[in-house]
Amino acid sequence: MKSITNLKKGSRLAWSPYRLAIKSLIGGALILTAFQSSAQTQDVQYTRPSWYFGAAAGANFNFYRGTTQELNSALTVPTAFHDGFGVGLYLAPLIEFHRPDTRFGAMLQLGYDNRSAVFNGVTTPCNCPADLSTDLSYFTVEPSIRIAPFKSNFYIYAGPRFAFNLNKSFTYKQGVNPAVAGQVAPADVKGDFSNTNDNLISMQIGMGYDIFLSSQSKHTQFVISPFVSFHPYYGQDPRSIESLNVTTVRAGVALKLGRGHRIELPVVEAPIPEAKPAPKPEPKPEPKPEPVVVVKPSVIGNVYKVYFEFDKWELDTRAEADLDILAKDMNEYPTVKIEIKSHTDSRGPEAYNMKLSEKRGKSVIDYLAAKGIVASRVNANAYGETELTNKCADGVPCTAEEHAANRRTEVLIIE
To answer: Of 239, 259, 279, which marks where a domain is finished?
Structure first.
């Protein structure tokens, strides 16, 4: 059965490029996984992404069952073929959505889907061996529901498969009777199956595991995801005649990337050192009161406010100009003392907000010290988010202006 032997060799040659590609993908996954644990030791700065974009590659293991004999209107072979097996290439870009630490998400893959196979050889009435191979291929659209049952990297998915036929070719080979000498084998017959279903609607169910290649300190994060799926024969009849059907098991690897959202982390710092006292200025005669638009420090109980940007403690130009006036007046009234109260809005962890309010108070203290205000005249306290000016507590929807009203440092004239 020389023709059968040649056909099987051909199938091995057709499979070997796919096998090399899949081995390379698996080898790359193992190498990149070795770096994952060390990469994830870096500081966390970003969330895991919710949207992923990438590509999937794999192999379809196709199992044909049923019967086919009338290959097209011009060729009905003398003996029917029943069982076949083959390996085809699968390539598809993908989109995936699932929020971190949630169970449910969605996936969409669409691309090239090969369902080729080589049928088991048969013997015709002339005692001649015969072989049949097919190169059926489709453009496939596969939306799926993604479920992570343990809120972990392991997930399962299921959904419909919409397939549109791209290729329906076959090759039929018939040998000669080995008991009869001098026969010449007929030429191979190449053609297209007739009565081919151009559109198929079937289903799939699979599972996979996400391996993060990038730590959460990276804005753009890469994921490699080995997967396997099962495509039952329901809805996968390649032809509208006879009983031929195909069941497929797919195995492959998906490479995905996404962008996380920045996480605001608490900043741990050493205690704020007390400002070094500046030389006490010589008392000056009290000037006559002047009409001013800012609070005069000589008025006990008045409150002077400085506002800050979100998550900032640096003084802007306006705040520095106002503090210049306050420092000038305090130098003119050396007996005046002040209390500095620093606050934040309600966003962020409480411990972080307390540290942030300390920094804001220190910015005001340092600036006044540079203007000659000694530390003995300043009493500073940090309140974090504990004394809001409105109802913008954590979790309560508020406007940007309402949050801004809470990001303040208050200077109170106490004596």
So the answer is: 259
Q: Is the pLDDT of residue 211 over 90?
A: yes
CA dihedral of residues 316, 318, 320, 326 (deg, nearest 10): -150
Residue 226 neighbours by CB under 8 Å, 6+ apart: 26, 29, 208, 209, 211, 252, 253
Phi, psi of 265, rounded to the nearest 5 degrees: -100, 145
List CB contacts of 195: < 8 A, sequence separation 6 or more.
239, 240, 241
* Pair of tokens at residue 91: 């390539």
- Biggest alpha carbon–alpha carbon distance for the chain: 133
Sequence-separated (6 or more) residues with CB below 8 Å from residue 339: 378, 379, 380, 381, 411, 412, 414
Q: Which domain holds residue 339?
A: 303-413
Most confident of 75-89, 316-330, 398-412: 75-89
- From the CB of residue 364, how many other CB atoms can be counted at a distance below 10 Å? 24
194 and 124 inside one domain: yes
In a domain, 289, yes or no: no
On whether both 251 and 325 belong to a single domain, the answer is no
Q: In this model, does residue 150 exceed pLDDT 80?
A: yes
Residue that is last in its domain, among 237, 259, 281: 259
